[in-house]
Amino acid sequence: MDVEELLTHALAARERAYAPYSRFLVGAAILCDDGSVFTGCNVENASYGLSNCAERSAVFEMVNSGRRKIAALAVVADAPRAISPCGACRQVLSEFAAADVPVLLANLSGDRKICVMSDLLPYAFYREDFVEHE
Ligand code: THU
Predict the structure, then answer these.
(1) What is the distance in A from the centroid of ligand 1 to the CA of 129?
(2) pTM given for the model
């Protein structure tokens, strides 16, 4: 599966976002090393600080299914330019994604940016004695 195909999963997840407060719907899709795909959307709350981003929702879906190795990631939102994950999500993603994992950032009007995890979070903090990717 290429990252463009992964983007179609992220777009479908975005449709499921619960974002009545910000009205900013985000979708994320993770391709795992075994070919499985997990998606996430943002889930907001009346207590705003409890809201969860699409990227972390997708990571939690993946881990809950027994997978822990991200092979590719796609994120999409309706923004003027391709969306870029927040700092908290970059840290959580880096727990399960090696530095060279490809990332596709997109918006709804065709802006695309392709980068790798280490572009999003250089010098990531991780515990080599626990983190399972190289
Ligand atoms: N959001 C995400 O889901 N992912 C991002 O990368 C940035 C922000 C969500 C959080 C909140 O529900 C809404 O977008 C507005 O910030």
Answers:
(1) 31
(2) 0.97
